Amino acid sequence: MSELFQGTVLETAAPYIWLALGLVVLVLCGNWLVTGSVQLARHFKVSTFIVGLTIVAYGTSAPEMFISVGAALSGAHEIALGNVIGSNIANIGAILAIVALVATIPIRNKALGLDLSIMFVLTLLLFLFGFNGTISRLEGLALLSILAAYTAWSVVKARKTAGIKETAPATMKPLPAALLVLGALIGLYFGADRFVDGAREIARQWGVSERVIAISIVAIGTSMPELVASLAAIFKKEADLSIGNIIGSNLFNIAGVLGVTAIVRPLSVGERSMFVSDMAWLLGISILLVLAMVPLSRGVISRWKGGVLLSVFVAYIVILYNS
Length: 323
Known about the structure:
- By secondary structure, the protein is mainly α.
- It has helices spanning about 1-45, 50-60, 60-75, 75-100, 110-130, 135-160, 175-205, 210-220, 225-235, 240-265, 270-295, 305-320, and strands at about 105, 135, 265-270, 300.
- The chain has one domain (about 20-320): NCX, central ion-binding region (A middle domain of Talin 1), CATH 1.20.1420.30.
- It contains twelve helices and four strands, in the order H-H-H-H-E-H-E-H-H-H-H-H-E-H-E-H.
- It has a two-stranded antiparallel ribbon with strand order 1-4. A two-stranded antiparallel sheet has the order 2-3.
- The model has no long low-confidence stretch (mean pLDDT about 85).
């Protein structure tokens, strides 16, 4: 009887243990990712904003990539799609909001206007592609092509303007910095994997649906690297890296994660009304992000703005669980 009780307690507690261990790994690796990325940016004289949009943003979205592709291959299309939509909503309404509540985020980069526009275009494309019930391989290829073109253009533009502005000298050689970034990305993947496994098992214990798990628990779990990386960036006074990470992650989630996933296996969106509702929330909170950042040359995402974004996110989760 005692052994049975102990076994039951351990089975119940295991998901919470994995959740905590995953979070510890995410915290450590998030800090290493920012440190290594900033050092690489300074060595190659690329702005930290561009590094945030590319290396950090794409790297912290690796968990979404692995989970969505794996879910599509196993036939769990709602998890594959819900993970991306939920992560993008969480990136703005939870991750960026929490960072703003910790410390106000100054907006000093006018280039954000174009990046935000592309994020909106990709979000609208996702809505149009999914409205007929399926995201095809051709549509996945179109999303991936947009990402490739955008990334190449961003890097080229950054290198052209790098000579105009002085950059702080690097304090770490390129190879150690690159190895630090690589090790951090690997750690972020395994940390997020443990975190999500624990979160999904807890959700099963609570008895919620697969769609709700994907859009809330899985999405929030896979957004933990973005939270840690953005917090680490803001503490290091790298505001451009912090905001660039969020925008870049949202870009990559749609164009990269869903692009690759649809190429591997075309995605079914499931019930159309649910898809339209989730996309409406994503578009709405994206518009709030733009309003919070205006003007792009001297704006500030203050604590009260972070509070508004977080309130909208909490309302979304409450409605999701009660629908």
